[in-house]
Amino acid sequence: MDFIELLKVIFLGIVEGITEWLPISSTGHLLLVDEFLKVNLSKDFMSMFNVVIQLGAILAVVVLFFKKLWPFSKEEKNYIKKDTFTLWFKIVVACIPGIVMIPFDSKIEELFFNPQTIATTLILYGILFIVIENRNAGKQPKVAKLSDITYQMAFMIGLFQILAMIPGTSRSGATIIGAMLLGASRYVAAEFTFFLAIPTMFGASFLKLLKFGFTFTGAEIVALITGMLTAFIVSIISIKFLMGYIKKNNFKVFGWYRIVLGIIVAGYFLLAR
């Protein structure tokens, strides 16, 4: 793989690391990037690559929140952190709706992976962020701690995650909106979204790898490792930024950003015809 192609892969990793965690849709950005930046690798590989580099992003969550996510401790009775185990059970419950929808993934992508849908969902969820923030202004959230999330609420958040199967929605955007509608604070909504991403994105990556196969050329191995490593580093920065930002600010800026991006996507592909 030559230097220019490597730079393209690094850029894709940067886009993934930013857009996977900020609620602004990685699909919408990758669609635009793909129009201007073509990596000289097969279409099938790049389809798999755009999903599997998420493994680097997942690792960032594990590293940043390891103490909260690791369910064992020498300081606890029987070395088990009950609250952490309970959190993982809730995450599993939240994954159930997504598991049920796996057989429909390819059909949904076939029907909705187009610029018109992506532009529409970018704008629609951008408006929703602004409306929800206006509705919640001055109100105290009902769920201010992760431990306050019930199993029923976790399942409902999982239902919202299904919406992210429609391109342009944003997995983090859908689950954050869902959690906030159900009474969670911005911080709790974002945190639970990050934790829910671990099994969700790992599962999606595994299925893509299974479909593609485990035979790679040297250039493909370099591209995949570079993309994941870049996504990991940038995800660390993105997650830290978002968690710090929402302690003092709301999600409106992301709502407006989505609306502007949606208009750009719609305008570009309309004029490109």
From TrEMBL:
The keyword Transmembrane helix applies. GO terms for molecular function: undecaprenyl-diphosphatase activity. It is an enzyme of class 3 (hydrolase). Bacitracin is thought to be involved in the inhibition of peptidoglycan synthesis by sequestering undecaprenyl diphosphate, thereby reducing the pool of lipid carrier available. Belongs to the UppP family. Its main location: membrane. The gene is uppP. Keywords: Antibiotic resistance, Cell membrane, Cell shape, Cell wall biogenesis/degradation, Hydrolase, Membrane, Peptidoglycan synthesis, Transmembrane, Transmembrane helix. Catalyzes the dephosphorylation of undecaprenyl diphosphate (UPP). Confers resistance to bacitracin. GO terms for cellular component: plasma membrane. It holds the Pfam family BacA. This is Undecaprenyl-diphosphatase. PANTHER family: UNDECAPRENYL-DIPHOSPHATASE. It is found in: Cell membrane. It catalyses: di-trans,octa-cis-undecaprenyl diphosphate + H2O = di-trans,octa-cis-undecaprenyl phosphate + phosphate + H(+). It comes from the Bacteria. It is a multi-pass membrane protein. The keyword RNA-binding does not apply. The chain crosses the membrane at residues 45-66, 87-104, 116-132, 153-181, 187-209, 221-243, 255-272. Its EC number is 3.6.1.27. GO terms for biological process: cell wall organization; peptidoglycan biosynthetic process; regulation of cell shape; response to antibiotic.
